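Forwarding the complex inputs:
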Amino acid sequence: MNASPISSGCAAKIATRVAYGEALVEMGERFENLVVLDADITKAMQTGAFSKRYPERSVDFGIAEQDMMAAAAGMATMGKIPVVNTYAVFAALRACEQLRTFVAYPNLNVKIVVSHGGLAVGWDGVTHQGLEDMSVVRSIPNVAIVHPADAVSTKKLLPQILAHEGPVYFRLGRNAVPVIYSEDHEFEMGRAEVLTDGRDVAIIACGLMVSESMKALDILASEGVRARLVDMHAIKPLDAAAVIEAAELTGAVVTVEDNNILGGLGSAVAETLGENCPTPMRRIGIRDCFGESGEPDALFEKYGMSAAHIADAARQVIALKK
Amino acid sequence: MASGSLADMDAVARQIRCDIIKMIHAAGSGHPGASLSSVEILTALYFSVMKVDPERPRWAERDRFILSKGHACPVHYAALARRGFFPVEELATLRRINSRLQGHPDMNKTPGVDMTSGSLGNGISCAGGMALAGKMDGLGSRIYVLLGDGEIQEGVVWEAAMTAAHYRLDNLCAILNNNGLQLDGNTRDVMNIEPVADKWRSFGWNVIDADGHDLDSLVAAFDFARRAKGQPSIVIADTTKGRGVSFMEDECDWHGRWPTVEETESALLELGDRP
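Prediction (whole assembly, two chains):
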């Protein structure tokens, strides 16, 4: 394995949506056809810096996500690279049909950037928590799904997403999360990152659950268990080679996501392993239920998604391979 | 044929009606009523009003047309074929497997189709996005979108109506095919849309009335819309569903009914089809 991509400094905490807003404004010059579309949540989506610098390339549709999504499709036919900004639940569910029929089906070059993915949204409760958005979008052809773990990967992946020809669903989070990667680490859209090289169990995680899994790694290490942690930012197309490699090296797999375990990362990994190298596995995530309001860590505890739960799932799969 | 005189356009409109009947009969399914009611609208646009080039269907500076009421695509396909975008013979492949002519419009399959459409209410949002992009680039292109009167019951239409007025999209012209019928019956009985002109006016649109079966009236309406500055226009085109075939006219049943062999012959006879 090459030098660790993990930042050696003390971990600052930055929300991926904040990192996105900072990176977006820098993309204006490089992508002159980039236009930024909002639906009245520019503050939450952090698009203000872009619209301040490029007012003529920013359009607010008001509280009208369906109109925004279909208009983005129209703009893309005119050669623009429209970036639609809203919360996961509103892009993937409220504007789902516009995304499916008018963006994905014609394979138009629209980028869908969403914040507030997952139970980690916390206090706002179910209406604003994207609990199944990745499952819904993953079932729509032509759309790539990228879910970065931290601020560095968010910033490094954004230009690749904008350069990618076709629709991309870029899922960001509301809350500040630890910066995992060192600033000089280079990413490739669609290629998983291997963070640790243990051989007892593989933990394949995405989004903020990568840092939650790092806490689980500490618990496991104290018991002498060494885990291979894979940051699967590429939910679709899935980095299947990285999944199979992790399964072959460890013989036991745990997936970790802040999304319904039906249809998201856990499903994608299970499908890949089932067809290529059946391996004992457990899925950590939202267990096909709705969430509720609350402090994010308390919710993770209640819904079985904390570091302790991840460590427990790791022990279970290790036991299965014996 | 290329764009031409009104007399020529009358002949084109009659030919397009015959094409529609033949296509839907050959396909075994389709929507004759809506197609027949939109014939003059499509004829006026493609043979007089719109800047298009059949040799360059993706020409950047062309005008755009979105058939938001996508189920009326036979009229669109016939107009495109007669304008020279693809061979007229291909019309017989409508709705068949491997055909470029899908049951609803597909921008990647059919030359001349500017936007995939058919799920009702969304075409006007796509048109708004095109108009916004056109404004950003200072493009002279005009964006046309045809809506059904039943279609405007969809809520997203009114989101798009607000957007177009808010951003003063005077390069956008909607056409309402006001035929008074939808699948389940009279629009006024299923879900009343009246007062329809007042609704659009109150949303900030320039409202223009037209006889949707009179080419002069339609061309004049589109000219009027072109001259309106600072607001989008909508041409409320009064039409008759099934227009041109007496037994289909104003009959809700013909929204999505397939014409039998006898009905097809009878319709073509009435339209003066010359083989």
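The mean pLDDT of chain A is 96.
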